[in-house]
Design a protein that fits this description.
Largest sheet: 4 strands, antiparallel
Number of strands: 4
Number of helices: 2
Low-confidence stretches: none
Strand content: over 45%
Order of helices and strands: HHEEEE
Mean pLDDT: 87
Structural class: mainly beta
Distance between the termini: 23 Å
Helix content: 10-25%
């Protein structure tokens, strides 16, 4: 690591909850100073996404062995989905620290394009043993969202 991702300040780091009450105060200005000193190339990069798609495959079988039947099944699926909103508006509002002020303060307001790419990967493995009087099954599933 060449230090590009390191936090640009090590002392006097205000907490977000502290800044919310008074964003234009001393703590708020320090918070903004730390945020703005991050490397801007670490920001999101706008690019064309590939098409939304998904695929899956599964197979299984039962095999009779003497007086028992052994079974298995396996499955795998992959899904890629992109959502995009042009000129999206995002706002966060809160009560003022002044008790006489009844109007909500704007804490954060952003306007711009917003996109999210979701990938879901899943796998399933199942095994079973069936006798004349009983069934024993074991299923293992793994889901991962990225």
């Amino acid at each position: 690591d060449d230090g590009t991702r390191s936090i640009p300040a090590t002392t006097n780091l205000p907490f977000f909850a502290t800044v919310l009450g008074d964003p234009s105060g001393e703590q708020g200005l320090r918070y903004r100073e730390v945020l703005e000193s991050f490397n801007p190339t670490m920001a999101a990069i706008q690019q064309m996404s590939f098409m939304d798609y998904s695929f899956g495959v599964s197979f299984g079988n039962q095999i009779p062995v003497n007086k028992v039947t052994l079974g298995y099944n396996f499955g795998f699926s992959y899904k890629n989905n992109t959502e995009f909103y042009k000129n999206a508006e995002y706002g966060r509002y809160g009560l003022s620290s002044d008790p006489d002020e009844t109007e909500l303060d704007v804490r954060e307001f952003q306007v711009g394009d917003f996109g999210v790419n979701s990938v879901l990967l899943s796998g399933l493995a199942g095994f079973a043993v069936k006798t004349m009087r009983s069934k024993y099954r074991l299923n293992i599933i793994h889901l991962q969202n990225g």
